[in-house]
Amino acid sequence: MDERAMARGLSRGSVRALELAVKRYTPYVGTVICRTLSGQVSREDMEEITADVFLSLWRHAEALREEEGLRAYIGAIARNAAVDFRRRQRPAGELPEAAADPRDGPEQQAVQREWSHRLWQAVEALGEPDTTLFVRYYYEEDKLKTVAKELGMSPGAAKQRLHRGRKALKKALSEGGEL
Q1: What is the per-residue pLDDT for 92?
Q2: Rg of the chain (C-alpha set)
Q3: Residues in CB range of 86: below 8 A, 6 or more apart
Q4: How far from the centroid of its chain's Cα atoms is residue 175's Cα?
């Protein structure tokens, strides 16, 4: 069964088409997940994310357009599932590098924690894919070219999004009189 026929079958609810998609695209999904998570994923987590990808494919099969290609659609689902997994693994509300210095007094530590919380809220408020772009580029120090490619955008578009995001962060954080 070719890719278009498989997409058509999935959109019609064919279990056979799903079974073929799982068989054909599981290695590809694993590669996308592994690359998105920089290889830092356990086998059990990889299997869980992969299962989530195919479950999502099945649940949203009616949205498939056979002319757009099944591989690209599955790749996008896998990338998004991996990004969601990474986000769930991160402690909410605070970026670790912005943690208060233990040598500071309690008041300074409280101010630093509050600032970290506000910064993280402002980054999350950017929305996707900008939040992922910011975290991967500034926090995880991934190369812009790599992050842009994995998010399906050109490096120029990623630079533009980072520029706009920095302006939005500055505005959001300066409203509280902090900048």
Answers
A1: 46
A2: 20
A3: 36, 37
A4: 28
Tokens of 140: 């995880």
Unique residue bearing structure tokens 């509050």: 114
Q: What is the pLDDT of residues 40-61, one digit of tens each?
A: 888 899 999 999 999 999 999 8
Dig out the tokens for 173 from the structure: 């954080």
Residue 169 C-alpha from the chain's centroid: 19
Instruction: Give the side-chain half-sphere CA count within 13 A for 54.
Output: 20
Given CA atoms 62, 51, 19, 2 in this order, what sign does their dihedral have?
A: positive
Which residue has 């890719």 as its token pair?
3
Helix ranges restricted to H, 60-154: 70-89, 106-125, 130-134, 144-150
Which residues in the chain come in under a pLDDT of 70?
90-105, 109, 176-179
Contact assessment for residue 83 and residue 36, using Cβ atoms and an 8 Å cutoff? yes
